[in-house]
Amino acid sequence: MTIQFNEETFRDDYSFYNSDWAIKRFPFPFHEDSYMYSVNMEQHRGGPKGSVYEMRFDVDEHYVSEMKDRELVLADDPLRCQSLPHMTLAGWDLLELIMVSKSEDYPDLFELHRDGNHWRWINKPLGIDDTFTFLDETTLPYGPMEYITRQAQGDFCVLDQRDEMLWMDAGMVTTQADWSLDFDIGMNFFEWHAPVPLAHEMGIFKRALKFLLNVQQGAPARRLNWTMTVNPLLDTSPENYHKWGIQKTTLTPENLGAKQHLRVELQTFFRLPRSNALVFPIRCYLISFQDLVTIPKWGRRLHRVVRDLPVELATYKGFIDNRPMMLDYLSKFDDGLPTSPGVFPDLDTEPPLSG
Amino acid sequence: MSAAPQKAKPGAEQIPVTVSAVVPLNDLVTRFEFKRRDGKPFPTFSGGAHTVVTMNDDGRTRLNPYSLMSDPSDTSTYAISVRRDDNGRGGSLFMHTRVNVGDEMTITYPVNLFSLDLRARKHLFFAGGIGITPFLSMIAQLELMNGNWELHYSVRTEALGSYVDELRYKFPNKVHVYYDDKSEAIPLEDLLDGQPLGTNAYVCGPKGMIDWIHATAESAGWPDAQVHSEEFLAPAPGKPFEVRLCKSDLTIQVGENESLLEAIERSGVEAPFLCRGGACGQCETNVVSYDGEFVHRDHWLDDEQHADGSKIMPCVSRFVGKSLELDR
Amino acid sequence: MSKFQFPESIISRPVYGTLTSRPGKAHLMIADAEGAEAILDLAVQDAVLMAKSHIIYIPKGTGETYTTKLRALKPAQFYEGPSYEASVQRLRHVLANAHQGLQVYLAGTEGLMGQAQNEAMQAGIPHTSIQTEHRGSVARRMQCVHCKGITEDVMHDPFQCAHCGLHLFVRDHYSRRLAAYQGVRVDAEDHGNIPEPQELYS
Q1: Of C98, C123, C125, the CB nearest to B223
Q2: CA-based, 20 to 30 A from A176: which of C21, C42, C141, C182?
Q3: Cβ-proximal residues to B131 (8 Å cutoff; 6+ apart), any chain
Q4: CB contacts < 8 Å between B and C, how many?
Q5: Predicted confidence (pLDDT) per residue in A200-222, tens digit
Q6: Out of A80, A223, A271, A283, which one is annotated catalytic?
Q7: Which CATH topology does B122-230 take?
Q8: Is B22 helix (H, G, I), strand (E, B) or coil?
């Protein structure tokens, strides 16, 4: 299918919106009426047709505008994209993975023509047609990781694997949930997750690391994570927190449905062939509460999850102060009926909101 | 999440291949080359990676890991070199005596448990005998990146020195060979002394050689994290024993010449695995109860875990005693 | 002076140990202020260590208290610097010419150990092989996550960034590469509401 790319912004006037298509395919992260940490990994080998899980790298209506937003962030702060010197080879691995995947999965949008190491890459939505020599940095305008991740939605962490450990040694991070690549680069898996509450004690990170160290070539994996954001702001970085933090206080009962967004990360994991590094793309999807509650099952369930979430998690995810107002809003979309298991909308089988 | 639940299969992804060449190198070592049956290119891989070869030995399935020794950037062919072990459990003998050009086999995607530290200022390789194989792909990778490396290769005799001539011809200043029968030894203490900061050492060979290099490097003050080793353990034969698999509600017998993992698989129980050499940790299994002694041979569990009898790595470890119950 | 016991914290926060003599032909010791005591203790452990050692010492306001004692250890090389910054070129030169097997020992304040550790890591020594022992001040080296400026010797939480002037709270999240803890605007969600600064660990 051909995608209509939205004209929209993720800052200032926040004209971001989801079409009906985007709402229905939104990666709702709660498979039951409550939430607690779990490793929740599964293989990343496609999914239902049209879903965000179908392709290796999902491309949707926000592609062009997200890439424009990334350009603005990088112009403002080039430190959002960094690669330690030994990670260049992993950058080439990533460039190959994305170019091959996108050209195979979206042949009408992307083309890759290879003759040995002589490559031509055509990106129609962004109007790019470049010829370069694979593994020769001098033939690209940026390093390989930066070049390709300026053309791919979501953040990218490229993790070196050494001594039974993963190391955050490169990344393109402009749509993050309040963590700083510039600060965290060079840290190991436990260190960059250090500020996360509860999960260490639960052994979540030990189990997750063990799983990730064993993600092999040809067998990628995925999981979902989530948080909350006021306004459809992609760049919720600590660097700019002194500017956006105050936006959390602009919520009112009247504007909450439009301003409060559920922010979902589709995290995928691919072993990279030449470098033996692991790439960890973190794709961010935003949906306003008012759009989300148009799916009756999701409205019911989100109310229950937000209501029952432990205080530590609501604090860590940054919405403890706004939780009462969010619950006032969401309770109107929870009639107490049971919900079907799984994450999908089930519009044909789930009853509309009663009363 | 449950977008599209898919149960992970044990082992790495499989690639159906045809044997394209069988090249005897000397009395003990033969090279096997593979082409993909579907005509697609092989995945590139990182130096030091291995593949697990599936052998159908008259109905008995053997799965043996071998280092990929071909150039990682050559996606047309994969190659392994197999040393014949007349006293082993039969995998290498099967390869030597039963595999011919044109045979169809299955190998796995590359898995790397012995990768280069790409931060290293210099890579210092120590190979013993057939332990040369992972270094061949590492060298090919480093040559492409203008990497700084040096090889010290110890072999028994000139006749048994696999790839010596080729390596010396291509890299006369970087390859140093030592012959046991001429009483030549790697001058290890001298070599470890004076290397620039950030040099990483790698060793692949017999256990004695690995231990010697680790110990010598440690006493010379080398950081442990900069000495890497790979020793593929073939599962050792041992006395037959009986195991109760609780989850599966089965009691199985482990034969003299098969591993516990193989016996579990033979009984139809799916068990996770990856390297089948005691290194990757995938097959780690909880022990429910036991009365006897474990013969732990893996590199995965730590000493404490070996001592407390709570876990076993069924790919290489065995058991001697009255009863053993596993959570499988 | 008794050693300070840091409270239990998150995993990214460094944990310091006690210096012990390790095998090796060459030994590099870098210390500031009361860190000298850790070097003096180390010298007691191993009689031949000092003959193979190079000490870089920054008294940092302790005057002559320790330099005489350190010199008396008769290290192969001894350098007393007026500041860490002044000693960095020397440190880099030593590391650039060092060989595998060099042992690095750091002692003193977190700021000094963090920065010297970073130099040694850049030179190719894994951080896990660099020994550290905390002595003296518990002041922290802080990076402002907003302007990226470093404020040295922070003793209070919150504190004011020496570069951009924002009031920042002191996190335990630590970057080895920056040799600094993270400081984040304390009043980001309520501009102007700045809590009364408390002395660290008080």
Answers
A1: C125
A2: C141
A3: B203, B204, B205, B206, B209, B230
A4: 57
A5: 787 888 888 988 998 899 989 99
A6: A223
A7: Rossmann fold (3.40.50)
A8: strand
pTM for this model (two decimals): 0.92
The DSSP string of A178-225 is S--HHHHTT-BHHHHTTT-TTTTTTTHHHHHHHHHHT--TT--EEEEE
* 3-state SS, residue B79: strand
Range of the domain at C165: 140-199
C174 with C149, same domain: the answer is: yes
- Is C58 a domain residue? yes
Q: What is the side-by-side strand order in the sheet with B318-326?
A: B250-254, B241-245, B318-326, B285-295, B311-312
A337 phi, psi to nearest 5 deg: -70, 155
Task: Return the number of other C-beta atoms located less than 10 Å from residue B215's C-beta.
Answer: 12
Whether residue C34 is found in the same domain as residue C123 = yes
Using pLDDT thresholds of 50, 70 and 90, give the confidence band for residue B281: confident
What is the C-alpha to C-alpha distance for residues B223 and B117, in angstroms, rounded to an integer? 14
Residues A195 and C173: beta-carbon distance below 8 Å: yes
Domain chopping of chain B, boundaries:
14-108, 122-230, 241-326
Shortest Cα distance from B2 to chain A (angstroms)?
6
d(CA A171, CA A79): 10
B16 near B39, Cβ under 8 Å? Answer: no
Tell me how crowded residue C123 is: count the other CB atoms within 10 A of its CB.
20
Over residues A122-141, the mean pLDDT reads 98
Q: In the prediction, which pLDDT does B3 show?
A: 44
Q: Does C163 touch chain B (CB under 8 A)?
A: no
Kindly tell me the burial class for residue C64, based on how many C-beta atoms sit within 10 Å of its own C-beta (0-12, 13-18, 19 or more). Answer: exposed
Q: What is residue B111's DSSP assignment?
A: B
- For chain B, what's the residue count? 328
CATH code, domain with C120:
3.40.50.80
CATH homologous superfamily of B14-108: Translation factors (2.40.30.10)
C-beta separation of B195 from B108 below 8 A: no
Beginning with the edge strand found earlier in the chain, give each strand of the sheet holding B149-155 in spatial order: B175-179, B149-155, B122-128, B199-204, B227-230
Q: State how far the Cα of C189 lies from the Cα of B242, in Å rounded to an integer.
A: 65
**pLDDT per residue as tens digits for the range A221-262:** 999 999 999 999 999 999 999 999 999 999 999 999 999 999
Question: In this complex, do A183 and C173 lie within 8 Å of one another by their Cβ atoms?
Answer: yes
Query: Buried b vs exposed e over B176-209: b needs ≥16 C-beta within 10 Å?
Result: bbbbeeeeeebebeebbeebbbbbbbbbbbeeeb
Burial pattern C67-85, b for ≥16 Cβ within 10 A else e, equals beebeebebeebbebeebe
Q: Quick check: A89 and A169 in contact, CB under 8 A?
A: no
Could you tell me if C123 and C39 lie in one domain?
yes
Residue B292 contacts C where some CB pair is shorter than 8 Å? no
Q: Determine contact: C52 vs chain B, CB below 8 A.
A: no
- Under a CB-based contact definition with an 8 Å cutoff, are residues C173 and A179 in contact? no
Query: C15 lies in a domain?
Result: no
Of A197 and B243, more confident: B243
State the angle between helix axes of C84-96 and C110-122 in degrees (0 to 180), rounded to the nearest 10. 30
Give the whole-angstrom CA distance, residue B189 versus residue B179.
18
The reported pLDDT for the residue numbered B10 is: 67
Q: How far apart are the first and last CA of chain B?
A: 25
Q: Do B3 and A343 touch (CB under 8 A)?
A: yes
Establish whether A120 is a catalytic residue.
Answer: no
Same domain, C128 and C144: no
Q: How far is C-alpha C43 from the geometric centre of its chain's CA atoms?
A: 20
Work out the angle between the directed axes of helices A323-331 and A296-308 (0-180°, nearest 10): 150
Q: Quick one: pLDDT at residue A206?
A: 86
Q: Is C6 part of any domain? A: no
Instruction: Count the residues in chain C.
Output: 202
Q: Looking at the DSSP assignment, which residues form a beta bridge with residue C142?
A: C151, C181
Name the one residue in this structure whose structure tokens are 């390789």. B125
